[in-house]
Automatic annotation (TrEMBL):
Subcellular location: Cytoplasm
Protein name listed in UniProt: Protein-L-isoaspartate O-methyltransferase
GO terms of biological process kind: protein repair
UniProt KW keywords: Cytoplasm, Methyltransferase, S-adenosyl-L-methionine, Transferase
Gene3D superfamilies given in the database record: Vaccinia Virus protein VP39 (3.40.50.150)
Active site: S52
A family per Pfam: PCMT
Highest taxon in the source lineage: Bacteria
Enzyme class: transferase
Catalytic activity: [protein]-L-isoaspartate + S-adenosyl-L-methionine = [protein]-L-isoaspartate alpha-methyl ester + S-adenosyl-L-homocysteine
NCBIfam families: pimt, PRK00312.1
Organism (species): Bradyrhizobium nanningense
Length: 205
């Protein structure tokens, strides 16, 4: 039923569908929400954050057109669920989280699942050290009012970046940027709602 729901909503990439089926989503939600883990809705997690609805995870993953040799950057680890999905489709994943509690919990979950090609980093996803990158793919899982240039600059030629762009309170639009040898192509995809991407590392949690 889970895969059927995603197919009905337009997800057609077989590798993405298979991965969504294989990654145990119930391990990434709070115990009280486990009965509803596979419903197509976002769920609350610690630190006032959320785990995105399955369709959005599958859709963003499909838009990245991942291959096994790709090095992927994720901004906003959250529960670690999106990183677990990415880990099965890409070569290496670096995921950045500003809340220590979320970073530590996600790291433990990913290790338990054997996602050994994922590195969880506590840090500011909006102000990364200059030596990080470049990447073949970048995925942002928190709302940005605009995509920072220093993030776009980390994309390899042929690379894809996907991020929800719009006001922090309200509806955002998923934007896909593709870097070519001659510049950046921008495409608007679908409307979404994400928690805001905030600067800095959280002082607590």
């Amino acid at each position: 039923m889970f895969q059927l729901t995603l197919r009905r909503r337009g997800i057609s990439d077989q590798a993405v569908l298979r991965t969504m089926e294989e990654v145990p989503r119930e391990l990434f939600v709070d115990e009280a929400d486990r009965d509803g883990a596979y419903r197509d809705s976002a769920l609350p997690i610690a630190c006032g954050q959320t785990i995105s609805q399955p369709f959005v995870v599958a859709y963003m993953t499909e838009q990245l057109q991942l291959q096994k040799q790709h090095r992927v950057l994720e901004i906003g680890t959250g529960s670690g669920y999106q990183a677990a999905v990415l880990s099965r489709l890409a070569g290496q994943v670096l995921t950045v989280e500003r809340y220590r509690k979320l970073a530590d919990t996600a790291r433990a979950r990913l290790e338990k699942l054997g996602c050994h090609n994922v590195e969880v980093m506590l840090g500011d996803g909006l102000n990364l050290p200059p030596n990080i990158g470049p990447f073949d793919r970048i995925i942002v899982t928190a709302a940005m009012e605009q995509i920072p240039e220093n993030l776009v600059e980390r994309l390899e030629v042929g690379g894809i970046l996907i991020a929800p762009v719009g006001p922090h309170q309200g509806v955002q639009t998923l934007i896909r940027l593709t870097r070519s040898a001659t510049g950046i192509e921008r495409k608007e995809l679908v409307d979404v709602r994400f928690v805001p991407a905030l600067p800095g590392v959280a002082r607590e949690l």
